Known about the structure:
Layout: H1 5-28, H2 39-44, H3 46-57, E1 62-65, E2 70-75, E3 82-88, E4 97-100, E5 108-112, E6 120-129, E7 132-141
Antiparallel strand pairs: 1-2, 2-5, 3-4, 3-6, 6-7
Amino acid sequence: xKFNFGTGIFVFLVxxxxxxxxVVLKSATxxxxxxxxxxxxxxxHYQEKxxxxxxxxxxxxxxxxxxGDQLVIQFSDNTTPNxxxxxxxxxxxxxxxxxxxxxxxxxxxxxxxxxxxxxxWRIKVDWTEKEKTYYKEFEFFN
Length: 142
């Protein structure tokens, strides 16, 4: 068989159409849900969130420790935080959950890693202390 200009165009079109069909079918299986249902409201209040982040960056008021089979969220000494710890899963919105801050006598909250689904998590700590609000995010791989 002789390979000429017409054959090249035909082969190109067949490969192009197959690729196009593959992309359309693959994109139909991907979840296109929004990251946040109230994204417009979050945009309006972004300056408030930025101020919280700025206040919490000055000192190490909260940190996480992933040692062993536990995830420990540790607050600094002399703190009495009141707020929420949110576990955000970027790949699956149905796994997201939140807990109110309830510290033990060591000023920490402990979560068992086996109770948290495997994968990448973003931990959002939003708390109030002495009339000031703070916000800090951490990456967590389980």
